[in-house]
Amino acid sequence: MDFEPSARTRDLTARLQVFMDEHVYPAEAVYDAQVAASANPHEQPQVMRDLQATAREQGLWNLFMTHGSWGAGLTNLEYAPLMELAGRSIIGPEALNCSAPDTGNMEILAMYGTPEQQEQWLHPLLDCRIRSAFAMTEPAVASSDATNITATIRRDGDHYVLNGRKWYTSGILDPDCKLVIFMGKSDPDGPTYRQQSMILVPTDAPGIEVLRDLTMFGYQDRLGHGEVDFTDVRVPAANMLGVEGDGFAIAQGRLGPGRMHYAMRAIGFAERAMSMMCRRAVDREAFGGPLADQGVVREWVARSRMEIDQVRLLTLRASWLMDTQGNAAARSDVAAIKVAAMEVAHNVVNRAVQTYGAAGVSEDTVLARLFAITRALQIADGPNEVHLRTIGKLELAGYRKPADAATYMGGRP
């Protein structure tokens, strides 16, 4: 395994570092102020539009896209360090048009969309002329097991009719959101993993009602996390992604790179919190000296450094496996980074909060927001327990084979 950054990654990293220092970090407070002052808290603030224009001019645009000729054409391993750097700011990925849920939706359209679907939806998303949402999770069932989903997609002539209630439909409240990718059951009596489909739904289709915006530990997200009713929503049959029953396969195709993006962004969160903790420890005095002289603080710093570096290596290995052996071969590693990266980020942020004391739980620093995000993302995109279940199942698979005394000595061969 060779994790040495390619020449292109080194060049992009250097340029992205300048962009973050000169444009993104100074814009964070402006972004929050413009959102707070807006009549619609979900409308994209002008400072973000300015950041995106600058990113496009500097060639820092759609770096995530590995499919076709639409993006930068980077491998997962090449892209990973860039997402860590952008992830040090909550607004960093959005400035590069590399933020969820659009990244996953664009990948789905690139991999499974027809040329007509790509022309109508993918190209505007890549240009950031529109935004999108993903409607899968439902309030009435445990959606961590997607076979529980009850929303329906029923064929009616040249159309499909959609019914169901979704929630935490991220991005739905953004006025620029023009597309929802909706997951529901098209064949409830079919084989377990062929029951569901994904379909493209314009947000102005009659029958879509946003009931409320859901907060995340009390924080309101600019994109919005909507609870949404779909009542007899009719969309053309041509809007089906793939064919009926492809829903699970499409979801699986979306997960590997998406979870790497989450993991590297989490490492960026952790590095931001680590830097803040170290500066606070050096500058703040208590009990006759700087906090950095306290043994417990030095232990927090040491453990944070070890944990961040460990999970970065694990994520780079998962990226390398996806690039060299495919997403299926990286399944256990991809599940592991989703768990480990968010847990590490949350632990490091928690230590930084403790180092800052009262300021750490206030809105005077980014730490409280990072604390909420890293905790929530241990549930979003599949709770940790689901990924642990997958890792355990894969790890135990080899032990279920008939034991051969010449090969197995009470454990692995």
Automatic annotation (TrEMBL):
Q: Which domain of life is it from?
A: Bacteria
A Pfam family of this chain: Acyl-CoA_dh_M
Q: Which UniProt keywords apply?
A: FAD, Flavoprotein, Oxidoreductase
Which residue numbers delimit the Acyl-CoA oxidase/dehydrogenase middle domain? 133-233
Q: Where is the Acyl-CoA dehydrogenase/oxidase N-terminal domain?
A: 16-127
Question: Where in the numbering of this chain does the Acyl-CoA dehydrogenase/oxidase C-terminal domain appear?
Answer: 245-393
Names of the cofactor(s): FAD
State whether it acts alone or in a complex, and with which partners, per the record. Answer: Homodimer.
Family per similarity comment: Belongs to the acyl-CoA dehydrogenase family.
Record-given protein name? Acyl-CoA dehydrogenase family protein
